[in-house]
């Protein structure tokens, strides 16, 4: 029971998993970079990012670089820990099933 | 069936972590060429010094200036080749040549390189040139180890090798030239070949 409990529903989607993967190894990533890396549409990325933000796993910083608006995403400590638990659970499940 | 999805998740995670934080289009071929330039440069320096009639270098002499020019050309050619071939490889991989990953790679490589380069120039100016070869190897090795976190991990082992060669060279000052040849010439070719067969050929 305990292993399944650690599979985090918040990360159970390709885009949300991708956002977290990038943010745990980078100090921050802006909207454009995430979009390029994950190969998704603006709306899709924005809605998944919002879901992670509401869960408290990432923070969003909006600012201007020159005149251009720029959105930066960062993983929170809570998000990093939750993601680590999720990866551990994935690995445990794979080990059990093979 | 479920575990297949988990496996794919794990490999997606690993792939994105790597692509977002490391510049992986470093060309192995440019390492091989850098080694060949270094060997050629060393041969030219050897001929310059032996034909000058004195078996050692005198600062401010004609031969010394020519050897410095020779070194500078080797360095410029190596950097130029690395930039050209890596740009080409990045384009082929669909990776951007100048993004946050490659910027971090360059910055972290340059910090030990510039500190070391300035230090070498300062002690040369104080007529202490016995350890120049050893210091070049050690600082170059440190720069590679520092940069390896932002690129292919193999670079780290080349860095360790250069540091060890540099320390040996410091212990055996008479062999400085040959250890320089081994570190900048032969090791570049060896690691360049390893990386070429591991990453370029496919």
Low-confidence stretches of chain A: none
N-to-C SSE series of chain B? HHHHHHH
In whole angstroms, the N-to-C terminal distance of chain B is 31 Å
Overall geometry of chain B: elongated
Structural class of chain A: alpha+beta
Helix content of chain B: over 70%
Instruction: Quickly count the helices of chain A.
Output: 5
Description:
The complex is a heterodimer of chains A (98) and B (202). Chain A has a 3-stranded antiparallel sheet. In chain A, 28% of the residues are buried. With 98 residues, chain A is α+β, with helices and mostly antiparallel strands. Chain A has 5 helices and 3 strands; from the N terminus they run ααβααββα. Chain A has helices at residues 2-6, 14-25, 31-38, 42-54, 77-97; strands at residues 29-30, 58-65, 68-75. Chain A has one domain (2-92): Orthogonal Bundle (Arc Repressor Mutant, subunit A). Chain B has 202 residues and is mainly α. Chain B has one domain (26-200). In chain B, 79% of the residues lie in helices and 0% in strands. Chain B is built from 7 helices and no strands. The radius of gyration of chain B is 19 Å and the shape is elongated. The chains are: A alpha+beta (98), B mainly alpha (202).
Short description:
The complex is a heterodimer of chains A (98) and B (202). By secondary structure, chain A is α+β, with helices and mostly antiparallel strands.
Which properties best describe this structure?
heterodimer; A: 98 residues; alpha+beta; Arc Repressor Mutant, subunit A; 3-stranded antiparallel β-sheet; 5 helices; 3 strands; B: 202 residues; mainly alpha; 7 helices; elongated
